[in-house]
Amino acid sequence: MKKAAEHSGNNFLAYATAFFVVTIWGTTFVQTKVLINAGLCPEEIFLYRFALAYLLIIPFAEKKLLLNSWRDEFIALLLGVTGGSLYFVTENTALIYGYCSNVSLLVCTTPLITTIVMRILFPKEKMRRGALIGSLVAFAGMALVVFNGNFVLKLSPLADALAFAACICWTLYSVFMRYMQPRYSTMLIMRKVFGYGVLTIVPFFISNPPRMELLINGGMLVWINILTLGCIASMLCYTLWNFVLKKLGTVHATNFIYFNPVVTIVASWLVLDERITWIAILGAILVLTGMYYIEQNRE
Fold first, then answer.
1. Do 235 and 56 contact (CB within 8 A), yes or no?
2. Three-class secondary structure of residue 27 per DSSP
3. Which of 26, 168, 211, 287 is deepest in the core (most CB within 10 A)?
4. pLDDT tens digits for range 38-83
């Protein structure tokens, strides 16, 4: 317990940053829903937010065109795919073909899957049994928040497969980032992530080009949400998440994703006037309890 307290004191900035990032990411579902209601498709939203993030990060990143080896360049491409284009396409397409609650539940299994994968690939990235129990408690709370009193759990093979693919994408993104972090600066890595994210989303527009008129004539609401997604949720938060990964480790940092649905449901209540039930409140309490228990049982 004393060791956990020392961790808390030394990493307070990392914890605060992690909560800030997941809070912002928790609101992106609402912002994306607002933009979809305005006529934009998920692929267009991703293109605009990552293109804006790429332009914003250029002045802060190193000017070198290619990384030190073709292997590193290929891994940077995989980062852009797993943390960008493929992740967002699989997640958003799953929402079209399946229940939102099912998709959210599957995507939020990311911390558990990441823990398993990281323990296999990197034995030093491990959790005590108490931390694993805390993770399960947080997962149970997250499930209650996702369903929010409306328990609908029906199989939709295509949607469930896509949601699980999104989960695997973010796990792979964490693994690839673990490899790249010691080799390059954060800004250079993120410039590559945003650039390759934009590049690999282009094939989705071969038959249906992006409708720029929806962006140009969308009005203040569309522009505010696009700017927020590009400047804050993408450029700023992806960069800050690298800092969190370095300070807390991949496994511990990923557990903060459990807090994401709590933010989403509060934002939906404030912006979209969606109701919050006592079940969701109980779930939020379990999420916070589980996250606290994880911290108290850190290695």
1. yes
2. helix
3. 287
4. 888 889 999 999 999 999 999 999 988 899 999 999 999 999 999 9
